[in-house]
Amino acid sequence: IGTTDKEFSGDPSAATTTAEEIDYLCAAVNGYFREQITAKDVVGVFAGVRALYDDGSGAPEDVTRDYRLLLDESGRAAPALTICGGKITTYRRLAEAALHKLAHHLPDAPDWTAHAALPGGDFVHNEMDGMVLNVRTQWPFLSEATARRLVRAYGTRVHAVIGAARAMSDLGQNFGADLTAAEVQYLIAREWARSANDILWRRTKLGLHLSKMQRDALGAFLAGQGARAAAG
Q: Which parts of the chain are beta strand (E)?
């Protein structure tokens, strides 16, 4: 649940979630559900600094989330393009806008992302059940829940995750919640995951279902992978 918006100054790496913010979000949720939650129910938090364009709004929550592109072509220095704001949901449109802004310095690129699927997303949304059935037919050792999670997460790229496995054990170490070494290695190779937090929170959200011991086991596995890569 989230997020909150507060002004911040200083080192972005020092941003933290305050008790006040946690209480605020719990209260917001409690307004909609009969089962009430408190800060004791929170299993994880994160905080970060988002740079937004100062449009003169009086409160942080009123500042526009849209992006602004500022091109500095003064002097003889190379042009500098500064991107303010933006959201992950508009990142491809932002990239196109940035290229258009620089079109007189670089070859102009056509707009193409509006009709291009994200990686693994090249299927019709109502084909989900059929894809899950196909995955379970090809890899019958997968449970319904695991097959559905993998299809939801990776779409048509699920084949690159499971590969030639013929049993759950072929996917390597199981860290919990059916997160296997095969999936971890896919995330490292194809989705640039570098740490346990990348995998558990930024890629899969499976950190919600793993114990500290299981999370530590994943960290140890990744450390071992790094050591082997360095030796190689």
A: 68-72, 80-84
